[in-house]
Design brief:
Elements: E1 3-7, H1 14-25, E2 32-36, E3 49-53, H2 70-75, E4 80-83, H3 86-91, H4 96-108, E5 112-117, H5 121-125, H6 129-140, E6 150-153, H7 167-183, E7 191-194, H8 199-206, E8 213-216, H9 223-230
Parallel strand pairs: 1-2, 1-8, 2-3, 3-4, 4-5, 5-6, 6-7, 7-8
Helix pairs in contact: 4-6, 6-7, 8-9
The chain binds 2-phosphoglycolic acid.
Length: 234
């Protein structure tokens, strides 16, 4: 069983999500399918497809205009929330510390955080990939985790760029993440790979050791692109 999570980013409509969910419900799969959608689309019901948010406030409630609390996301029936996506790290200057606080809010409200880590092109070129990944994992995960979390490795330079790391780069990153999680007492935590996943490379990526699923951006927007990813693995 793999986890196939879509990230719609700032795209789509509620009716589009309803029709995507209907399409996905016809797919015969044992994989866990998740769609992380804009807040306004949460609340669409499905027995087979779990929904998630794409970000969450660091705060529990109160005078934080424009922010959405974890309790509110949970109130829609959503089960997951992405935290620390590279676009949030980049455009909102989120640090590992911010991401950890957001993950804590998610956990305190019964949501499973999908905690993203990954290196920028600058960090990659400076030979810092492994250090950035390890500190991302150690610093972005709350210390008192007692329920499920998901980690996603997203090489930031490859997202939306049609670029993918080599198989051995993915294997090296995922092995480091799995080892770090085990060292933190979180062995068995699923680790997803995300960046330019599509139907044509999904099976190969998910055959790499320690890759427990994928986080898919662009190719999760249309059933015709997303379903082949879901059915690429048993
Ligand atoms: P992409 O995005 O699949 O469009 O590269 C991945 C992500 O941002 O999660």
């Amino acid at each position: 069983m793999k986890i196939i999570a879509g990230n719609w980013k700032m795209n789509g409509t509620r009716s589009g999500l309803e029709s995507m969910v209907r399409d996905l419900e016809t797919v015969d799969t044992e994989n866990q399918v998740i769609l992380c959608v804009p807040f306004t689309m949460l609340g669409v019901r499905s027995d087979k497809v779990a929904l998630g948010g794409q970000d969450v406030s660091e705060q529990a409630k109160g005078a934080f205009t424009g922010e959405v609390a974890a309790s509110m996301i949970a109130d829609t029936g959503a089960k997951y929330v992405i935290v620390g996506h590279s676009e949030c790290r980049q455009y909102h200057n989120e640090t590992n510390n911010t991401v950890r606080n957001k993950a804590s809010q998610a956990l305190a409200n019964g949501l499973i955080p999908i905690i993203c880590v990954g290196e920028t092109m600058e960090e990659k070129q400076a030979g810092k990939t492994m250090a950035v990944i390890e500190s991302g994992v150690r610093e972005s995960i709350p210390s008192d985790v007692s329920t499920d979390i998901i980690v996603a490795y997203e090489p930031r330079w490859a997202i939306g760029a049609g670029l993918t790391p080599t198989e051995s780069e993915i294997a090296e990153a995922h092995t480091l993440i799995a080892k770090t999680l085990a060292d933190m007492g979180l062995g068995g935590t699923p680790v997803l790979y995300g960046a330019s996943v599509k139907g044509s490379n999904a099976a190969e990526i998910m055959s790499i050791p320690n890759v427990d699923g994928v986080l898919v951006g662009g190719a999760s927007l249309k059933s015709d692109d997303f379903i082949p990813i879901i059915t690429s693995v048993k």
